Amino acid sequence: MRILGGVLLILIVGAAPGWAALGEPESSVSADLQVLRGQIREEVHPGYRLHQITDASGSVVREYVSPAGKVFGVSWQGPFVPNMQQLLGSYFPNLQQYAKAQTGRHGGPLIIQKDNFVFTSGGHMRWYHGRAYVPSLLPTNLSPEVVQ
Amino acid sequence: MRLKNISAATLACLLVVIAGGMFLTNCGSGGTGNDIPLPVVTLSPATASVQAGAMVQFTATVVSSTSTTITWSVNEIAGGNSTLGTVNSSGLYAAPASVPNPATVTVTATSSAESFPSGSAIVTITAPAANATVSVAPTDSSTPTGTMVQYAATVTGTTNTAVTWSVNGVTGGNSTVGTINNASTPGLYVAPTAMPSPPTVVVTATSQADSTQSASTTLTLTASNSAPLFVNFGPNGNTGNPNTTHYNGLFTTVSVCLPGTEQCQIIPDVLVDTGSVGLRVLNSVLTTVPSTELSTVTDTAGNQVEECTQFPDTSYAWGPVLIADVVIGGETASSVPIQVIGDTTYTVPATSCLSLSPGPSDDTVAALGANGILGVGTSIQDCGLNCAGGQTFSAYPYYVCPKDVCTAAAVPVIKQVSNPVAYFAKDNNGVEIILPSIPSAGAPLLPYTNEGGTGLVPAGQLILGVGTESNNALGSATLYAADTNGNFAQVVYNGNTYTSGGFVDTGLNALYVLDALTLGIQDCTDNPYYCPSATFPLSLTAYGANGTSGNVTLSIANADTLFGTNSGYSAFDNLGGATGTGSSTDYFDLGLPFFFGRSVFVGIAGTTIPNNVSAPNGYFAF
Predict the structure, then answer these.
(1) Which of A16, A60, B258, B597 is most exposed, with the fewest beta carbons within 10 Å of its own?
(2) What's the pTM?
(3) B484–A58 CB contact, under 8 Å
(4) Please, which pLDDT band fits residue A14 given cuts at 50, 70 and 90?
(5) How far apart are CA B246 and CA B478, in angstroms?
(6) What is the ipTM of this complex?
(7) Contact criterion met (CB < 8 Å) for B360 and A127
């Protein structure tokens, strides 16, 4: 299983370098690491693996990977909003679509809750926080609350 | 016969009859009989023009050798009537309510005692002119001591539109209540440097054409280190849709000036935001101080520096960093870097700006919901050392765009968009936000009519400086040093300790606290707020990085009920919302509702702090 995942990983990296992350194979984390220019820490939890990238500014990006090898959730916290296009990959257009539908700033966080895409963003200048996950990619019996 | 023709010798016998007086006189009998003049009654004025419904007082002058009684008539009708007008026994003529036909009547005074000629006056009744009306602007405003307010008067109904200005009834005012110019720049009010008592003065413009017509407005003088705060929906108003209406918007007025000059533009409706740092103003509202006249901040190669400001709702502001003087209340931040939102040179934001902030561009009043944002948060610069070079991040806010290709740029901290408060000559170590308590059902637009009824007063005050003046002492407030993220060190709720973050922020419009599942309440189904079935008490304990702690008691009401009960209200001290979905969140983003009924200090990192407390990252105190 583990070996099979490794083989798959190499194939995908070869086929689709560059953009990565949410909904993508675990290999995409390394692309994020390159773009985000940080240090990575990896943790194994019951039911998922966590890659945590911390850059020199103190910004922390966490990517949550299912046993099937897909990034099912991401979160961030720190002085900058991370590159959302990098982090959300093919789900970035979902964010654009819903975020652009906002009419006028009225001073609150952004919460998007759709069947196929959940996103929250809040905080203040020099400290932003947020997370995104894809419900359909959640490992069985795993709560989305692990994405923090 | 005119009075002046009466010989001097008869003047001793001249009797002036007013009020129907009956004078008994016998002076003639004691005089030389040959000098007895021709008896005469004269009326003054001899002619009069009076508007329908108005009155005129006649005086009858009787020259007589004997006692006499005067009776009055209009067109020979004793006392007149409602068609011709009435005249009473005192000679007070009241014109009819409408112009008679013909429009001229004769008022006659007749002596009852002698049959000498009566005296008459011709009265022309005119239609009421379109009443001269006067109005003044601005109405019911406030200004810091030592500053100026330009008033304008509008006079209608008369060709002479000139007015005379007065303060508290004194033409031109005086040094105690402030002066107002009647000469070179009419209507320019100069506030006194010392606070008058009471602090509210009345400014009046009186029509020079009709001195009975005037307009007055109140002006409340505030301390020079204060600016008025208003709570309202902002320039977009109440849309009627809770999803797009900006409840609990906190606004003030600032001036942007060409550095070192008096060429300034007053900009109202600027959002006061303790959650950000630096002044950002829409290019579209800069008219008298156009952004093209402000000097640019450049990198070492001379390229104009652009900024992509990220807002937590994923919207963004793109535009250049420029140098301006910024006036808040009575104090000036000299040559401070600001951001002008909406660049005419580099109209296309950096590609990565759009990757960072996929939401709308806040480059119009409609999108921003304000004319600008005044960031008076806990730091001096909006980015700091992270943007000053030596590190390159994927999510940089500063860019240069040589040949229209934008790339991330390092900008020294001194050139970064900065907290204007830190640039004041004094009162530069933070701000105090003072807002009144409001009812749990909410409040309409603030300003509001105060209890004394002297006019509208601002909702609250933005006081500049902490512990620097008599009006901004920390007093018994608890000081919570911020952690490195600008947050409380931790927040304890319901026995659980949350270390991820908690902060107070006037730029947030609600109490964004945890999530509905964790609190055990309900999200509204049709807007982004909480809708608990009953008002939910929220008791927190906040901890500062300096080890202090204190209880914070808030409540969250049902937003649907709040909006439904008073659909026009803009201020709610119990409006809450979630920071996320599910039960995964652990944030306490305490927005404007927290500030009602409190005085909250926001201290700037690296400044002098009262009481020698260590707060290297700034602080909140309340």
Answers:
(1) B597
(2) 0.75
(3) yes
(4) very low
(5) 30
(6) 0.84
(7) no
